[in-house]
Amino acid sequence: MEPTPPTPAPVSDRQGPAARHPAAGATGAGPRSWAAAAGGVSAALTLAVAELAAAVVGPGSSPVNAVGSAFVDATPAWLKDAAIAAFGVHDKTALVVGILLVLAVVAAATGLAARRSGPLGTALVLALGAVGAVAAATRADAPALAALPSLVGAAAGAVALNRLVARAGPGPVAPEHAHRDEAGDAGGQTGADEHEADLTRSPASALPDRRAFLRAATLVTVLAAVGGVAAATVNGVGRVAVAARDRILLPRPRRSAAPVPAGAQAPVDGVVDVVTRNDDFYRIDTALTVPRVDPATWELRVHGLVEREVTLTFDELLASDLVEAHVTLACVSNPVGGDLVGNALWLGLPVRELLARAVPRPDADMVLSTSVDGFTASTPLEVLTDDRDALLAVGMNGAPLPLEHGFPVRMVVPGLYGYVSATKWVTDLEVTRFADQDAYWTVRGWSPQGPVKTSSRIEVPRTGATLPAGEVAVGGTAWAQHRGVVGVEVQVDTGPWVAATLADEISVDTWRQWSWTWDAEPGEHVIRVRAADPEGSQTGDEAPVVPDGATGWHEIRVTVRG
Ligand SMILES: Nc1nc2c(c(=O)[nH]1)N[C@H]1C(S)=C(S)[C@@H](COP(=O)(O)O)O[C@H]1N2
Ligand SMILES: [Mo]
């Protein structure tokens, strides 16, 4: 994601008609809206120069990304949760829009500050640069010199701001000029030409020269735009990752997944695909911009409580005996009935085989996996060494992992929520103990352990639908990864729970679809669903997503026409 230079926010005038004259701001002072605009375009230049410098210094030094990421990491769990609830997989777009709005306001404020005092404006811009520098230097993937782009950008921004504000005219205007200004306005709506004429009559030192200001502001805007486009183009590593992904030829698995049974897709129009297309797969992570990892330099280190450290390159990984498995991934933040869940065919190396090379010590009980961007997940060692298909995955539905799903390598562990298992862009596995290490979400109030809770949802019909009376097709999906769904029941209003028809199972590690034909009678109705795994039926007790996943029965409301 490339930074968007904020549009200089037009500062609305609250002073009545006289204030519409751009040279007559509040209280007879210089034009505040010009100063605010100067702050805006200077901020755009700051960002463009900083991002351009970051493209040269290396990935991970982008101040925009660093500040945003620091913000993401500092966001309390409840707020992030609210954002996911409100915006779903668009939570990041909402965050970026929010950041740009805040930035526009801050930028205008630097302009107003600079109008009062040049050094004050400079100090503010440099302070903001320092924030970017600290944020960038303290990121997990910070290169050496990570602080540099922010500082260079801030320096350029401060120079631009001072030059512009100087051209926006003096702050306090002598009474004589203020008076002349008012007289000009009294003549009615001041057109641009009239205004210029008015200004030429004024001493150049006392009243702003609008042309000079506009010329300078345009120059800064053009520089910012050119810099921004250049930064986007020079973003070399991004292109390296994209190009490298295009060249990858995935090896044939040593063990292929069994074909998906024809009966795995429930025969109801509108039920989701039983294997989720990559483009449709939900995306949840803390990465403000998708990490771009060059597989040529990717390396995984296995260390900690092990007999011997192991490192693995991408080529070595591709040359290993890879296996294929369908696994359904679910997010702990998925509300009852939500869609933060997807099923894909993964290709990868069983984590257990890699761990066997390292030989975990007997006192270890957890593997802390770390992403290139610093995200961590704590996975029970037992789950990674039993016979399930916990994979170090390189392929998703027959293609190399999409960048946003963890290219070049991620973890996929059947039976656990993603936050404790599915580390994308993974580069480090530390064999350790739950007593000694906390993962990213654990320190933010989520449970250190996150087995998936048995869940089910109704996909057809949609809640709120109006339906004809008679036979209505009802269908949806249920999941209980690594235990398997053994039954699904449906209830209408306060009627009895009745068994739905289960579609064929792909494996116990995947979701399972279901269908049911309802003989609908006119009126308002509530339809509820619950699934069963071998240990029993899904609980109807309602629990929120924090700290270890929501529970409760999904229900929809429909109207049947008379
Ligand atoms: N590096 C990294 N990996 C991550 C996360 C993250 O924030 N960063 N989020 C996890 C969570 S909470 C989930 S639910 C899954 C989602 O994987 P997906 O985006 O491929 O669907 O990724 C997991 N892996
Ligand atoms: Mo998640």
List keywords for this structure.
Immunoglobulin-like; binds molybdenum atom; six-stranded mixed beta sheet; binds the ligand Nc1nc2c(c(=O)[nH]1)N[C@H]1C(S)=C(S)[C@@H](COP(=O)(O)O)O[C@H]1N2; 3 domains; Sulfite Oxidase, Chain A, domain 2; 20 strands; alpha+beta; disordered N terminus; 562 residues; five-stranded mixed beta sheet
Brief summary:
By secondary structure, the protein is α+β, with helices and mostly antiparallel strands. It has helices at residues 32-57, 63-74, 77-87, 91-116, 118-137, 148-167, 175-186, 192-201, 210-234, 236-247, 314-319, 351-358, 381-385, and strands at 299-304, 310-313, 323-330, 341-350, 366-371, 376-380, 391-396, 399-400, 410-412, 426-432, 455-460, 466-467, 470-479, 487-492, 498-499, 501-502, 512-520, 523-533, 536-537, 554-560. The protein folds into three domains: 14-237, no CATH class; 262-444, Sulfite Oxidase, Chain A, domain 2 (Alpha-Beta Complex); 455-560, Immunoglobulin-like (Sandwich), CATH 2.60.40.
